[in-house]
Amino acid sequence: MNCIICGEDINCKYSLSLDCDCKSKYHYECIFTTLKNDKFNKCPYCAKPFQMLPLVNGVKRIEPKVHIIDENNVFESVKCQAILKSGKNKGNKCNKNCKLGYETCQRHFINYN
Predict the structure, then answer these.
(1) pLDDT in tens, 56-99
(2) Half-sphere exposure of 101 (CA within 13 A, CB side)
(3) What is the pLDDT at residue 110?
(4) The predicted structure's pLDDT at residue 96
(5) Which among 78, 80, 101, 98 is positioned nearest to 89, based on CA atoms?
(6) Separation of first and last alpha carbons in the chain
(7) pLDDT tier, 112 (very low <50, low <70, confident <90, very high otherwise)
(8) 27: phi then psi, degrees, rounded to nearest 5
(9) Which stretch of DSSP H or E encloses residue 33?
């Protein structure tokens, strides 16, 4: 199965389906960019309006027009918790920004998944 927007394999990045009848799956990055640039926030496949995205780990900037914002919960993106195995910081946590939708950075993603 492929992302309808970019055409790449849907499993290579974090993906989700919008709340509409078509149930099409998109990479989070692809649908985020599409909704951010769309005047009416509609599904790119079936054109159902007012689509919003959940906040996932790795989001660097919250877009009120695109993201579902829960006033009762403060969103905080978690940094990569992988323990470094070599180098001057050996034994410390990585603490880099996580890959979108995951709990590790790009460097440690392959080792943990």
Answers:
(1) 999 988 999 999 988 888 888 999 999 999 999 999 999 999 99
(2) 15
(3) 74
(4) 94
(5) 80
(6) 20
(7) low
(8) -65, 140
(9) helix 28-37
DSSP conformational letter for 17: E
The CATH code for residues 1-58 is: 3.30.40.10
**Stretch 27-36: mean pLDDT:** 93
Q: Are 31 and 24 in contact (CB under 8 A)?
A: no
Torsion sign over Cα 19, 25, 29, 33:
negative
Percent pLDDT > 70 in the chain is: 97
Q: Which residues pair with 26 in a beta bridge?
A: 16
Q: Would you list the DSSP string of 48-81?
A: -S---B---TT--S--TTTB---TTS---PPBP-
How many H-runs (helices) and E-runs (strands) does the chain carry? 2, 2
Write down the domain spans for the chain: 1-58
Task: Summarize the chain as % helix, strand, coil (round to 5).
Answer: 20, 10, 70
Query: Which residue has 């996932």 as its token pair?
Result: 56
64's tokens:
């009120």
